[in-house]
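User: Teach me something about this protein's shape.
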Amino acid sequence: MNDLTPSNSQYSLTPLGAGDLIDRAVRFYRKNFWTFVWIAAPPIVAGTLISVGWRILARSLFSIDPVNNPGETYAYYFFLWLGNLLIWLVEVVVTFTVMGGASRNFVRHLLFGEPITFRETYRNVKSRVFGLLTASVLIALLLGFIGMIILSIGYTVAALSIALTIYTFSFSPFIATILSIALFLGVAFGTGWLFFLIATNFAYVPQAMLVEGQGVFPAMGRSATLARGKALRLYALFVFSIIAIYSGLMLLKIPLDWYAWANGIDVWRAYFAWEPIPAWYEIASQFIWQASLILLMPVSMIGLCLMYVDERVRHEGYDIELLAAQRLGEIPAVPREFVNPLHPALAAKTYVENQPPNLPPPAKKASHSMLGLD
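Assistant: First, the predicted structure itself:
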């Protein structure tokens, strides 16, 4: 244990609060910055290229002339919006799939000190690609449907509450405005919390599939069991990721808007008036948006992996299980007719080409400090 590097000791698996989770995810990301950028890049780069192609196709099919041809202009924006929505959903599904491969690599990093690599992550994805894609599609459709219902309820509650507040305090516009803003923020927070109260149940599906070897539907049940009542941390991670992504986006978008304005293009007025916008600006905006996703999406991926391991440490003594796997190797296989009460810290998988899966992986220095077991 004395040969551990100081950088490893900061990742001890003690129980994490929301702030600790975000701080540790950011530090872990900073230490492995380029690796995570390369891992996140393929699905997002592919989505960017398809999105740019879709935009070029839309411009070739429809003309943008809101004065003389408003119908075709509306068709152009609907076609563009629909394509971007579908492309974004596919990106979410593929990113969720890649997250599963990264989670196994992450746990092997904790268990055996194995480096996190692009190759190993995508090898893990390949081993369960159809199951991961199936789970990702089901979860995306289910959460999209639930999200629309919750958003509609929240919008209705906010509108009615604000209207009632304005009517009740009509004698004082200042008080009505302050209370309306407070009500809107409260309903927005409550709506988000209600959504993540449901979404949290699916947060650990990729990890359950790749780390524990579960099937699609058992992994959903396993995820719901681990994540029960833990919506606040996922909510905080999501809010932080959104703020970080949009902050990074603005750092690149503001110079682009300034350049467009300097060349006589009023982008904001063109958007609201549905006027033609130069193709170079739309394509540059798309690249900037996707670049910000590539840079900051791994924070969410790391955060979810940390949450998964943290939940198992809290409720199942996973740190002890990992230490036993480090010292003793994999749990020996038993005949199928026997029930093995023990579960491996990491589900059996071929670690090296043509190596029997029940053999322990190649010996490596275990990062015990990362497990908080020194």
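Now, about its shape. The chain has one domain: 6-330+341-351+361-368. Residues 1-13, 350-374 have pLDDT under 50 and may be disordered. If you'd like, I can walk through any region in more detail.
User: That's plenty for now, thanks!
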